[in-house]
Design goal:
The complex is a heterodimer of chains A (311) and B (537).
Chain A (H helix, E strand, L loop, with lengths): L5 E10 L2 E11 L4 E5 L6 H8 L7 E6 L12 E4 L11 H11 L4 H14 L15 H13 L5 E5 L7 H16 L3 E6 L2 H7 L2 E6 L2 E7 H5 L5 E6 L2 H5 L5 E6 L8 E5 L6 H9 L4 E7 L3 H18 L1
Parallel strand pairs in A: 3-7, 3-8, 5-6, 6-7
Antiparallel strand pairs in A: 1-2, 1-4, 8-9, 10-12, 10-13, 11-12
Helix pairs in contact in A: 2-3, 2-4
Chain B lengths: L1 H15 L2 H28 L3 E7 L4 H28 L1 H6 L8 H15 L11 H10 L2 H5 L1 H13 L15 E3 L12 H12 L5 E3 L2 E3 L1 E7 L11 E4 L6 H22 L3 H8 L21 H37 L2 H8 L2 H35 L5 H9 L2 H28 L3 H21 L10 H7 L5 H8 L6 H29 L9 H9 L4
Helix pairs in contact in B: 1-14, 2-14, 3-6, 3-8, 3-10, 5-8, 12-14, 12-15, 12-16, 12-17, 12-19, 14-16, 16-17, 16-19, 16-20
The chains are: A alpha/beta (311), B mainly alpha (537).
The complex binds adenosine-5'-triphosphate (ATP) and magnesium ion.
Chain lengths: 311, 537
């Protein structure tokens, strides 16, 4: 069976005249961690809800774990919605166990798993606390655990990091890594590029309802030319002339006397070093700056993001 | 299926754990208990002996009034004595379940014999059966009660017949007690003078002395010289005119005396008058719907006719209880977005059914507890010999009636439950929900209003018309069941109600599906229609 866990084909969702999701197609291969990125209002949550069959697409088709409707394979999917909440009066354990049983885990087994998960991710002492007594972040962790307690093959998390402190963001990353290490597929949406960069193999970037990028993180980074930062007497003037340099400017990190050169796509940064050596320019600093996901993101969707903000 | 069960199970467990549930369960029997016990309690503790002053200007009328007051006092004591006897002989009477036929005349003879023997220690008293002991109080003629010696001996005799381990009988305080005028006031003073002098006592500003005790003066009764003449007025002073027992008693006795004198004056034999006055024309009621020989309308039929009202109220209360729970739960799930997780795990239908079943189970638990405690309390209070509970149950548990109740109860219940769940799904706060609830509640008030007249004309035009309006069908039909409405109507309305339940369910599911994902203002009616047409999902 070669179907990917998530496949979207020309999916569109309209609200009245407004296209919240506009003809997007992408697939997430099995066993990968896929980041789902995009500015506010890009249509991430809408897309995720359609994947889970909570919303129906206006047009296009979706296949989840080979099924047309997510509900047919619901016991194999774990889902954390964007807005988090818990049953206030239930204990953390009961809450996790309940959602596991809804996914087909037997009652006793579900309780055991719930206890184990809470223990494992640092909430052991809160097992019997009512959910209303948990802090927002702790509650969110409980909810994430509730969504994965039945050991699903596909986990979809809508902004799992929001509202967590740095330590718990780390725990969250750990949770995702653990799921992935068992060969499961994960899609999560986030606004924090560093998380995506650290744990994703693939990213899907949306902007204004349309697909802006779909591919591996490396492919995403190669969308932006690499840059080289140099400091040395006369280096700026000399290197600027090279044909692979498309743009030069003072360093974007603001260091005094450091020049930054943007290279043509595919160009080798070693050229600059060679050139400086040939021209006898002594370099105090020479560093190759790979674009990070943040920059790729801003590059791809910066315009739309700002536009969306003003809309 | 499993999913529905799990949702229902959670819903049930969570609701059962709430304080509200237990308050609901316990409050009912406590209220019933208080309704039964409170008046008794108040009577026992609350009404102390009332002290009164009687100023008698007539010839002998004061004595008549006094006698009647004594009778009242003794009847009260007798009542308590009977209760005491009933309690003390409860065990014995329970053992002997067979009904003893009591012949009043023979029993009174036996009593008189007993009274004779009481004075003579050599004679063995013929023992009374426990049932007779309880009953005898009802048979005592007034003269016996008014005769001081006989009264005391009767008490002694009855108490001597109780089992050895019976607790002591404590005589209750007298209901009314006459006291003499305070110092400085004398009967020879004029009415006006006496009234003025007693005013501070009647206002409780001053206390009277009676047997070295300070007592409050309850009333002053002045019987005028020719009290029996039409223009005469008995003057009654009391700061508590709401307690009319005393003055009623006195006026009764005086009126009786007036009539007696009038009969004598006209030469009418008063005994004959009493006999004539006691004549009654009686009726037997027949119901043409009953099979031949069975047409007589008895107590069971009465119960049968009114039992439906009980069921209608039950359904009404049931719907009210669940409405709140369903709204609260749906709105909680909606406002904390758990609904999304739920909807990724179960279908809307499963979720809706699970919730409604779970909450229904809570409602049923509560109702069973209520009915159980009600029957328990009534049984306990009325003793094991009470047959009316059996009557009630027998009246209700005839297959066709019970079948009808159960069907209409369940159908009505789900009709409204689905409706409330649908409403819950489009509201974000209880407050918003209230706006939708008010018209619904009004809708539900209508059948309550019709309940009193439907039993009078159960197959009339109004009842028939109302039966065909789905939100009212269950109430009205339950109310009519006892009157055997035509089969075509029973089946017709039943089928229509079933279809309505399915339709309401379908509409709710649809609204639920869209509503639960929405935040912001509840939709306008027009928007709801658009949802239902399916152009938005
Ligand atoms: N029920 C709805 N009715 C109308 N418009 C909607 C509805 N739901 C979402 N939208 C619109 O669709 C667009 C996409 O929303 P969506 O929630 O998918 O964005 P998102 O990418 O998840 O944004 P964020 O990062 O802020 O969570 C937004 O412009 C939003 O206003
Ligand atoms: Mg979102």
């Amino acid at each position: 069976m070669n179907t990917s866990p998530i496949e979207l084909n020309h999916v569109t969702k309209t609200y009245g005249d407004f296209k919240a999701v506009d003809d997007i197609s992408f697939t997430v291969p099995e066993g990968t961690v896929c980041g789902f990125l995009g500015p506010n209002g890009a249509g991430k949550t809408t897309s995720i809800r359609m994947m889970l069959d909570i919303l129906r697409p206006s047009s296009g088709t979706i296949s989840i774990l080979g099924a047309r409707r997510a509900l047919d394979v619901r016991s194999r999917i774990g889902y954390l919605p964007e807005e988090k909440g818990l049953y206030k009066k239930m204990t953390a354990t009961a809450m996790i166990a309940y959602f596991a049983t809804l996914k087909g885990v037997a009652g006793g087994e579900a309780k055991r798993i719930a206890g184990e998960l809470l223990e494992k991710y640092g909430l052991g002492s809160f097992q019997n606390h009512k959910c209303e007594a948990l802090s927002k972040g702790m509650g969110q962790k409980v909810q994430v655990l509730a969504s994965i307690a039945h050991d699903p093959d596909l986990v979809i998390l809508d902004e799992p990091f929001s509202g967590l402190d740095p330590v718990n963001q780390g725990v969250m990353e750990e949770v995702i890594q653990d799921i992935r290490s068992r060969g499961k597929t994960i899609l999560f949406s986030t606004h924090v590029m560093s998380h995506a960069e650290r744990i994703c193999e693939r990213v899907v970037i949306m902007a204004a309802g349309r697909l802006a990028f779909d591919g591996t993180v490396d492919e995403a980074k190669s969308l932006l030319p690499r840059r080289v930062r140099v400091k040395g007497k006369g280096a700026g003037a000399a290197l600027e002339q090279l044909k692979d340099v498309t743009h030069s400017s003072p360093s974007s990190d603001g260091r005094e006397g450091v020049a930054e050169f943007q290279l043509r796509e595919g160009a080798d940064p070693q050229q600059l070093l060679k050139c400086a050596f040939e021209q006898n320019i002594s370099l105090e600093i020479f560093e190759v700056v790979n674009p990070n996901l943040h920059e790729v993101f801003v590059h791809l969707v910066g315009e739309e993001a700002r536009e969306a903000a003003y809309r | 299926m499993m999913q529905i069960y799990r949702i229902a199970h959670r819903e049930y467990m969570e609701n059962v754990k709430t304080k509200g549930f237990w308050i609901g369960i316990l409050l009912f029997p406590i209220l019933i208990w208080m309704m039964i016990e409170l008046p008794k309690f108040l009577e026992e503790r609350g009404i102390p002996t009332r002290h009164l002053v009687i100023v008698d200007r007539s010839e002998g009328l004061g004595e008549i009034a006094r006698q009647r007051i004594t009778l009242l006092n003794r009847q009260k004591t007798l009542g308590e004595l009977q209760q005491h006897i009933a309690k003390a002989t409860e065990e014995q009477r329970k053992e002997k379940m067979e009904e003893v036929d009591i012949d009043p005349d023979q029993l009174l003879d036996q009593l008189e014999q007993g009274l004779d023997q009481l004075g003579n220690p050599d004679l063995e008293i013929q023992p009374f059966k426990p049932d007779q002991l309880v009953k005898i109080g009802d048979l005592l003629p007034e003269q016996m009660l008014l005769n001081d010696l006989q009264w005391n001996n009767i008490k002694k005799l009855l108490l001597s017949q109780l089992p050895d381990d019976a607790p002591e009988f404590i005589e209750p305080p007298l209901r009314f007690k006459e006291v003499t005028l305070p110092e400085g006031v004398s009967l020879t003073d004029g009415d006006q003078q006496i009234e003025d002098a007693l005013r501070p006592y009647l206002r409780s500003e001053m206390m009277l002395k009676s047997n070295d005790e300070e007592v409050e003066l309850f009333g002053l009764l002045i019987i005028p010289e020719n009290a029996l003449e039409p223009k005469a007025r008995v003057r009654f002073w009391s700061s508590n005119l709401a307690d009319t027992d005393l003055i009623d008693t006195v006026l009764d006795s005086l009126s009786e005396e007036a009539r007696q004198q009038e009969y004598d004056r006209r030469g009418i034999e008063s005994k004959a008058v009493a006999e004539v006055a006691s004549m009654r024309v009686r009726s037997i009621k027949f119901n043409p719907n009953k099979s031949e020989g069975d047409e007589k309308v008895g107590i069971r039929d009465k119960i049968r006719q009114y039992a439906p009202i009980g069921f209608v109220y039950m359904l009404w209360v049931a719907i009210f209880t669940i409405a709140q729970m369903l709204l609260n739960n749906t709105i909680e799930e909606k406002s904390n977005r758990l609904i999304e997780v739920l909807l990724s795990s179960v279908t809307t239908t499963e979720l809706l059914l699970g919730k409604v079943f779970g909450v229904a189970a809570v409602g049923v638990t509560m109702q069973c507890a209520w009915i159980g405690s009600l029957i328990g309390i009534l049984r306990y209070k009325s003793g094991p010999s009470a047959t009316w509970i059996a009557d009630l149950i027998a009246a209700v548990i005839t297959p066709e009636l019970l079948g009808g109740f159960v069907f209409y109860f369940i159908a009505g219940y789900f009709f409204y439950a689905f409706l409330f769940a649908g409403i819950g799904s489009i509201c974000n706060t209880i407050k918003e929900a209230q706006n939708f609830m008010s018209p619904l509640m009004l809708l539900m008030m209508v059948p309550l209003g019709t309940m009193t007249f439907i039993p009078n004309d159960p197959n009339g035009a109004i009842a028939t018309t109302l039966s065909w309006i789905p939100p009212w069908t269950p109430f009205v039909m339950m109310n009519r069941m006892a009157a055997s409405p035509p089969a075509s109507e029973i089946y017709g309305t039943a089928i229509m109600l079933l279809i309505s339940v399915v339709v309401v369910f379908w509409l709710s599911a649809k609204i639920f599906r869209i509503g639960v994902l929405r935040s912001g203002q509840p939709p306008k009616l027009l928007e709801l229609f658009r949802w239902l047409r399916g152009s938005h999902s």
